[in-house]
Amino acid sequence: MHSYDLFSAWLKQGNSIYFGSVVVPSILNKKRLKNPLTFNWIERIGTEYFISRFRKIAARRLKQNRVSIIEQNELSYSSVRVPAGFHFVLVPVYLFFKAIWAYLRLEFSELKYILRK
User: Fold this and answer.
1) Is the pLDDT reported for residue 74 higher than 70?
2) CA-to-CA separations, 57 to 1, 72, 75, 80, 102, in angstroms, rounded
3) What is the pTM for the complete model shown?
4) Confidence check: pLDDT of 71 > 60
5) pLDDT for position 87
6) CB within 8 A of 103, min separation 6: which ones?
7) Widest pairwise Cα distance in the chain
8) CA-to-CA distance for 107 and 33, rounded, in angstroms?
9) Would the pLDDT of 1 be above 70?
10) 95 and 20 in contact (C-beta within 8 Å)?
11) Are the CB atoms for 58 and 110 separated by under 8 Å?
12) Which of 110, 111, 112, 105 is nearest to 8 (CA)?
């Protein structure tokens, strides 16, 4: 993708989807582990939208020679601390808002670039 912020937003959305649709349901319902993960049509439409949007942004940035430069100490590592008790159900909500914020920050940076021209 040639872009740190684009790849970071992509990974945050993937973490949110994985934790919310695989990990938490598997903990709540052990029989869920026997069934493979499948998207319903709403999830499929949403996922395909974000995939196509990220690809368009990556292609446009590559065409415009806009490749992210990572400053020193800019790399960060994603981690999730699963709390004990029933509060672990709130972790997917936290990851969801983290992913939405990363996506909005990406869209605002694209809008700022367009308006600056």
Assistant:
1) no
2) 9, 24, 21, 28, 14
3) 0.68
4) no
5) 76
6) 9, 13, 50
7) 54
8) 36
9) no
10) yes
11) no
12) 105
Residue 53's contacts (CB-CB under 8 Å, 6 or more residues apart) are: none
Structure tokens at 71: 């400053």
**How far is 21 from 97, CA to CA, in rounded Å?**
15
**What does the H/E/C string look like for the chain?**
CCCHHHHHHHHHHHHHHHHHHHHHHHHHCHHHHHCCCCCCHHHHHHHHHHHHHHHHHHHHHHHCCCCCCCCCCCCCCCCCCCCCHHHHHHHHHHHHHHHHHHHHHHHHHHHHHHHHC
Q: Which amino acid is at 109?
A: S
How far, rounded to the nearest angstrom, does the alpha carbon of residue 16 sit from its chain's CA centroid?
6
**φ/ψ of residue 83, rounded to 5:** -70, 155
Beta-carbon contacts of 4 under 8 Å, excluding residues fewer than 6 positions away, are 68, 70, 74
- What are the residues whose beta carbons fall under 8 Å from the beta carbon of 91, sequence distance 6 or more? 19, 24, 80, 82, 83
